[in-house]
Design a protein that fits this description.
The protein has 499 residues and is an alpha/beta fold. The protein contains 11 helices and 22 strands. The protein has 2 domains: 310 residues, Aminopeptidase; 144 residues, Aminopeptidase i, Domain 2 (Roll), CATH 2.30.250. It holds the Pfam family Peptidase_M18.
């Protein structure tokens, strides 16, 4: 069943405060997939008074000043916003953006494999992962499953997290590959293939299973037609049985289809001599999802009645593969939300203004594109430009690139510096070395789609795109506080910097 993250608090001076590093670890452990992450973000927003909107419904009657709202797409992307008490159409929107996905292995539509007495699962590489880091890890499975509801008979989406070490991608013994420590190469199609069990089983066990322990799994009769092979023909029935039990379904055949992701079964944790590190997968980019989620909820009631703008977070799926999807940053998701809300006055008569209010709002707004940054690696410091080496615990990193792989410019940097000064949050600057390729973010995509001024920022981590990354525990709270101050102060400060 779905495991929700629990709020961890510590007491200081008689008041209850959030233990950000531990709560972040809890969030990571309950968010093995983008679907789980968005579910947990929704739960956090709802517990803080946010109301869900549907893209299929009109929003005019819901939109009110001081209102708190969120909308999802595909259950893997989410936009949440808070309306200031002095909001008017054409006023600014302060946005923090992030992404919910990470490089992973995903189970193929036809995954059933057997070889040399082993049951194996066919997987597909998603994103630019450091795939050798997946070898010899204990892997579990999570995702969403489309099932037939026993009452309504409709097909509904259910979250599943099997929370069990099910799969392993074993390395070849050094005795059979003497060059493994100098050159580790492998075929991603045939050698990045997890084992799931043994395919040679006791006849009594097979007989027992055929008598009904896995529900109604009989083949189709000759007069039935199916456009695709049945779920039992495409996937190992043992895996389907685990899903059936987890979702408490009557029969395996209640499973229509699924999107399942492999993840490291080893829990996320605080580590280091003084618990100064976060050891986990998916730091890229659940870090920014977590900090922006807390930033907007903690700022939601501070100074909101006097705020002239809208405060917003936007978290997208599919950044790791280019963002070109219906729910990616390169989709119409965020532009559609802005187009729907910026003309609304938020008054009782729900009077709307002209569409030009969207253009006015875009010209006044600001987008903090938040994705993790490369911390300087103590064993590979030569990979960094000598004057730009982000350190753990030294604050969020402002990312700059002359070729516009990052969107930071001097007016945006001046604005963020003012906000960081007020919040007393240190900032770091990062420029990649000229001889090392530079990555990119959702920042350039959304800046070009909306015309909104944009700055790229993120917390530093090590081993980016590995199955197990390392971040700084201290930096979590620093980024939450920076985003909180950004939401509270942007509408007023944006008047003071002219371009």
């Amino acid at each position: 069943m779905l495991r929700l993250h629990l709020r961890s608090k510590s007491t200081m001076s008689g008041s209850s405060v959030i233990n950000y590093p531990q709560e972040f670890v809890n969030f990571l452990n309950s968010s093995p997939t983008p679907y789980h992450a968005v579910h947990n973000i929704k739960s956090h927003l709802q517990s803080n008074g946010f109301v869900e909107l549907k893209e299929t419904d009109p929003w005019e009657s819901h939109f009110k000043k001081l209102g708190k709202y969120f909308v999802t797409r595909n259950n893997s992307s989410i936009v949440a916003f808070v309306v200031g008490g002095k909001w008017k159409p054409g006023n600014p929107v302060a946005i923090v953006g992030a992404h919910t996905d990470s490089p992973v292995l995903r189970i193929k539509p036809i995954s059933k494999r057997t070889n040399e007495g082993f049951s194996q699962i066919g997987v597909e590489c998603y994103g630019g992962g450091i795939w050798h880091s997946w070898f010899d890890s204990d892997l579990s499975v999570a995702g969403r499953v489309m099932v037939q509801d026993s009452k309504s008979k409709n097909i509904v989406s259910r979250l599943v997290d099997l929370k069990k070490p099910l799969l392993k991608i074993p390395t070849l013994a050094i005795h059979l590959d003497r060059d493994v420590n100098t050159k580790f190469e492998f075929n991603k199609e045939t050698q990045l293939l997890p084992i799931a069990g043994l395919s040679i089983k006791d006849k009594k066990e097979e007989t027992k299973k055929s008598e009904g322990c896995c529900g109604d799994s009989q083949p189709l009769s000759e007069d039935q037609f199916s456009s695709l092979k049945s779920i039992i023909e495409r996937h190992h029935e043992d895996l389907l049985e685990l899903i059936r039990k987890d979702l408490e379904l009557e029969n395996v055949t209640d499973i229509e289809d699924f999107e399942l992701i492999l993840y490291d079964h080893k829990p996320s944790t605080l580590g280091g001599i003084h618990d100064e590190f976060v050891f986990s997968g998916r730091l890229d980019n659940l870090t920014s999802c977590f900090t922006s989620m807390h930033g907007i909820t903690e700022a939601a009631d501070t100074g909101l009645s006097e705020d002239e703008g809208i405060r917003m977070v936007a978290m997208f799926d599919h950044e790791e593969i280019g963002s070109s999807s219906a729910q990616g940053a390169d989709s119409n998701f965020l532009p559609n939300v802005l187009e729907r809300i910026t003309p609304l006055a938020g008054s009782d008569d729900v009077q709307q203004t002209s569409a030009s209010s969207l253009l006015q709002s875009a010209a006044k707004s600001f987008f903090l594109s938040s994705d993790v940054a490369h911390a300087v690696h103590p064993n590979y410091s030569s990979k960094h430009e000598t004057q730009h080496k982000p350190q753990f615990g030294a604050g969020p990193v402002v990312k700059i690139n002359a070729n516009q792989r990052y969107m930071t410019n001097s007016p945006g940097l001046v604005l963020l510096k003012k906000i960081a000064d007020e919040a007393e949050i240190p900032l770091q600057l990062f420029v990649g070395a000229n001889n090392v390729p530079c990555g990119s973010t959702i920042g350039p995509i959304l800046a070009s789609k909306t015309g909104i001024r944009t700055l790229d920022i993120g917390n530093p981590i090590l081993s980016m795109h590995s199955i197990r990354e390392t971040g700084s525990a201290k930096d979590i709270e620093l980024q939450v506080k920076l985003f909180k101050k950004f939401f509270e102060r942007y509408s007023e400060l944006q008047h003071t910097i002219e371009v």
